[in-house]
Design goal:
By secondary structure, the protein is α/β, with parallel strands linked by helices. It is built from twelve helices and twelve strands. The structure holds 3-isopropylmalic acid and magnesium ion. The site of 3-isopropylmalic acid has 6 residues, from helix 4.
Length: about 350
């Protein structure tokens, strides 16, 4: 059997990190006898330039038909005035594939404690899984755009909360058995529904899981004070966007953080959590590890090939432990050379 990958390099550093992830993906596929077929499509700003649409029909059909979507990054200042922004393509992709749960593991690599902006003893032992709701909330509510007033509506249904909470609880069973749910229940109606639905599901189906709650402002603080206290962190779309950037730098660099977006049966979407970084695009400076570890998640989740995933993760760890890396983690490699080392370590 052959797995079909819709390959969307996108914009900025996207093509550089996507190429790196593809190279490592091909190396591990060869090693494990897994047959892959990559099909490249325009997406984001490059698709606006070529098709006047960040998510053209041809790309949409290919993503729907694929077993997995491997994405670099989208966006850049040159599309700021565009009728449809590149980011709208990304939101449409997540929505149309029904990818309601975004998994963002954040782990400090051994020996990287000193590279964290936190004191090394605080960064030590950080191993989080942020489960971010991805197709609801303020990202997808009614929007009124105006010069004098504007409005972004946030709404959630109980069913939307329960389905992503279920993913978090199931993930917690394979980890520490603890989930921290983050909301703003002291102010927002959607957050009170969120908390109520999360508690209800835990009581009904996951009584083995230890559940606690944090308000999002306090959580932003506690992630800095004591990040290793947390394990699975469950939260809604916008809070998850913000907290995952914050958490990623605790583990040294956002360039290291991968993500998987999953839903009910549809193809998974695999992308680093960093953006298109236009300031360093085309300069061979981007850290490819976030994209490469996203590919590892693709093997584990979409292809049911945990050994291939582990081989990639071990290769990344070994290359990092040998002191190699891009400038964001204090190394001297470019993106290409760094990816080359990881691909060699896999083979
Ligand atoms: C992310 C990004 C996106 C988001 C942007 C590019 C739309 O920040 O994946 O975290 O806000 O979800
Ligand atoms: Mg973000």
């Amino acid at each position: 059997m052959t797995f079909n990958i819709a390959y969307l390099p996108g914009d900025g550093v996207g093509p550089e990190v996507a190429r790196a992830a593809r190279q490592v993906t091909e190396a591990v596929a060869l090693k494990f006898g897994i047959s892959l077929n990559f099909e490249q499509h325009d997406f984001g700003g490059v698709a606006i330039d070529n098709h006047n649409d960040p998510f053209p029909n041809e790309t949409r059909d290919a993503c729907k038909a694929a077993d997995a979507v491997l994405l670099g990054a989208v966006g850049g200042p040159q599309w700021d005035g565009a009728l449809k922004r590149p980011e709208q393509g990304l939101l449409a992709l997540r929505k149309e594939l029904g990818l309601f749960a975004n998994l963002r593991p954040i782990k400090i690599f051994k020996g990287h404690e000193e590279k964290s902006p936190l004191k090394a003893e605080r960064a030590a032992g950080v191993d989080l899984l942020i489960v971010r709701e991805l197709t609801g909330g303020i990202y997808f509510g009614d929007r009124v755009e105006g010069n004098e007033t504007a409005r972004d509506e946030c709404s959630y249904s109980r069913a939307e909360v329960e389905r992503v909470a279920r993913i978090a609880f199931e993930a917690a069973r394979g980890r520490s058995g603890r989930v921290t749910s983050v909301d703003k229940a002291n102010v927002l109606a959607t957050s009170r529904l969120w908390r109520n639905a999360v508690v209800g599901l835990r009581d009904a189906e996951f009584s083995d899981i230890e559940l606690d709650h944090e308000l999002v402002d306090a959580m932003a603080m506690k992630l800095i004070q004591a990040p290793s206290r947390f394990d699975v962190v469950l939260t809604e779309n916008m809070f998850g966007d913000i907290l995952s950037d914050e958490a990623s730098v605790i583990a040294a660099s956002i360039g290291l953080a991968p993500s998987a977006s999953i839903g009910a049966g549809a193809a998974g979407l695999y992308e680093p959590i960093h953006g298109s970084a236009p300031d360093i695009a085309g300069e061979d400076k981007a850290n490819p590890v976030g994209a490469i570890l996203s590919a590892a998640m693709m093997f584990r989740i979409s292809f049911g090939a945990p050994s291939a995933a582990e081989a990639i993760e071990a290769a990344v760890q070994n290359v990092l432990a040998a002191g190699h890396g891009t400038a964001d983690i204090g190394g001297t490699d470019g993106c290409v050379a760094f990816a080359e080392r990881i691909a060699k370590a896999v083979a």
